[in-house]
Each structure stands twice: as structure tokens, then as C-alpha cells.
Design brief:
- By secondary structure, the protein is of the alpha/beta class.
- It has a single domain, classed as Aminopeptidase (3-Layer(aba) Sandwich), CATH 3.40.630.40.
- Helix content is about 35%, strand content about 15%.
- It has a seven-stranded mixed beta sheet, sandwiched between helices.
- Helix 8 links the parallel strand 7 and strand 8.
- The chain starts with a strand and ends with a helix.
Length: about 300
């Protein structure tokens, strides 16, 4: 495959991210919503093999909307990426990049080729959720560097700044990294009839157990089934921002898409408002618990 796929994105036209309740902090909690973005740069769309419906299967559909009551009514601090993860995935390490995607990748930097990049789902996705190639040729590594600089680094810079601000005020910060998961993987991984939510705490390493237990019990009281660390124990954000020595803790929340949406049409289902209310109530209860507990 020798074709070169060259394009340049005008980032000045893009609203990269939104943040909420970052001026006046109410709780020692930050919601990170890295995969719910559905904005595709126009230049990108003109140089790929598929329409947005196929690319959106990689997206955490409606997760920002699910958390809206916790953010707008509850006052919980949040940061949400608007750009589609098919364009760049901020929940990956910078080394998770496939050199074989580029015609001009630096020869003196072979990269570490971690597992996700080998599967085509590194920081720059090579394939869709259905394992179809996104491009019909090789990209410019210089263009990829711009994606990293203009989107990836911006998101993480703001995350670091907000975490620092929360920690300075409350003495600690918990990042709740919010995602959705396809129902298919839940049915494969679980012996139970279903998994509604999965909590990933890096196998009890990313936050005190009492936090995970609280969230699990809050969902259980509302008659949801919760799994811990299966099928997801936590990805880059959960790992990268877990730093107990600096009083920074993380917990990954995965929501089964089928409980609130149609996975094929991306439409909200009749249970959406109820699910949104329940999730937001759990988040606000967690936020209030953190105010009253001592993780310092």
C-alpha cells in the first residue's frame, strides 16, 4: 500500500473540548468524558473510506448526555472531548502508535508498539470498530503530530490543570473516567444475564476500595448489575492519573450501551431518562461522599 493520504486540518474551526464547573469547584471529583465526541474535521472526512455512521461505532454514544443532570443540576466538574475518537484517541499513551500507518515515520524512533496499536486502535485509529481500514493509504506522520498537539495534548493539559486545582482546594482528587461499552462484549465476558456497569480500578490499585464499593452499592440499590474489572479494568487515563502519593485517584466507569440506546441507530431508547437520572444520582452521591471522607 504505497498511496499517500495527505491532508491538513484547520483546527481553528474546531471546538476541541468543553469543560464544566471548573471556576467554582464544588466537589473533589472530576468527570472525564474522552470518547463521546462526535465532531469530525471536514478534511478528515474527505480522506477516509467510510461514512460517519460506521466511525461512530467507536464512540461512547450519549455518555455526556447521560451525565448532564450531574453536571448541570449537581454542579459536578467535568471535561468532555468534542472530537471523535476515530480521529484521535486521548485515552491512549503517546507511544501507542503504529509506525506502519505512515509513509514518513522517523526511522530513528521505532516506537513501543503496544498492544492496542497492534490491534489498530492506538492513539491514531487504523481501523473501525468492525476492524475495517479507515484509510486507503499511508498517512503523513507530521499530520498525526498535529492531531496530538492540537487535540490530545490540549485535553490532557486541561485535565492536569483541573486535577491540580481540585487537589489544591480539597487535598485530593478523584477522576471518574466515563465510557460506554458494546453489549456484545458484556454477553461474551459474563456468566450472568447481563452487565449494566463495569467499574475499573486497575484491580484495586487506582483508588481506595471504599470508593469502588460505594459506587457498586449505589448502582446495586437501583437494581443494576455491576462487574468489577471485567471486561475493563481501566485504560490510559485511569492509569496515568492514578498517583496516590500526590493524592490523585481514578476509577473507570463503563455503561452498557444497550440499557439506554439502540446500538445500531445511535438513538436514545425509552429508558434513557431513567438511566440518566440514576447514573447522575450515583455520581452526585459519590461527590457528596468524597466531601465528607478523608482521602488525604
Amino acid at each position: 500500500m504505497n498511496k499517500h493520504v495527505d491532508f491538513t486540518v484547520d483546527y481553528s474551526k474546531l471546538n476541541i473540548l468543553n469543560e464544566f464547573n471548573t471556576d467554582e469547584l464544588k466537589y473533589p471529583l472530576l468527570l472525564s468524558i474522552p470518547h463521546a465526541g462526535s465532531v469530525f474535521p471536514e478534511e478528515f472526512l474527505q480522506n477516509i473510506l467510510h461514512n460517519t455512521d460506521i466511525l461512530r461505532k467507536n464512540e461512547d454514544i450519549w455518555v455526556k448526555d447521560l451525565l448532564e443532570p450531574a453536571i448541570t443540576e449537581g454542579g459536578v466538574t467535568a471535561i468532555s472531548l468534542n472530537i471523535s475518537r476515530s480521529f484521535i484517541d486521548v485515552n491512549r499513551a503517546k507511544v501507542e502508535i503504529d509506525p506502519n500507518m505512515f509513509y514518513n515515520y522517523p526511522k530513528d524512533d521505532i516506537g513501543l508498539n503496544q498492544q492496542r496499536s497492534r490491534y489498530g486502535l492506538g492513539i491514531i485509529h487504523k481501523v473501525t470498530a468492525d476492524s475495517l481500514p479507515i484509510y486507503d493509504g499511508l498517512l503523513s506522520y507530521k499530520e498525526a503530530e498535529q492531531r496530538i498537539k492540537k487535540v490530545y495534548e490540549l485535553y490532557h493539559k486541561r485535565m492536569q490543570e483541573i486535577i491540580s486545582k481540585i487537589t489544591q482546594k480539597f487535598g485530593f482528587c478523584l477522576v471518574l473516567d466515563c465510557h460506554s461499552m458494546p453489549s456484545k462484549i458484556c454477553s461474551i465476558i459474563s456468566e450472568s444475564p447481563r452487565i449494566d456497569f463495569c467499574l475499573g480500578n486497575l484491580f484495586e490499585q487506582s483508588c481506595p476500595n471504599k470508593i469502588s464499593f460505594l459506587v457498586e452499592n449505589e448502582f446495586a440499590k437501583r437494581e443494576y448489575y455491576v462487574s468489577k474489572n471485567r471486561p475493563y479494568s481501566g485504560a490510559f487515563i485511569t492509569f496515568n492519573y492514578c498517583n496516590p502519593r500526590k493524592k490523585s485517584y481514578t476509577l473507570q466507569l463503563e455503561i452498557n450501551r444497550v440499557i439506554y440506546s439502540n446500538e445500531e441507530t445511535f438513538e436514545k431508547n425509552q429508558d434513557f431518562q431513567r438511566i440518566s437520572h440514576d447514573i447522575s444520582q450515583v455520581v452526585v452521591n459519590l461527590a457528596n461522599y468524597l466531601l465528607q471522607t478523608n482521602l488525604e
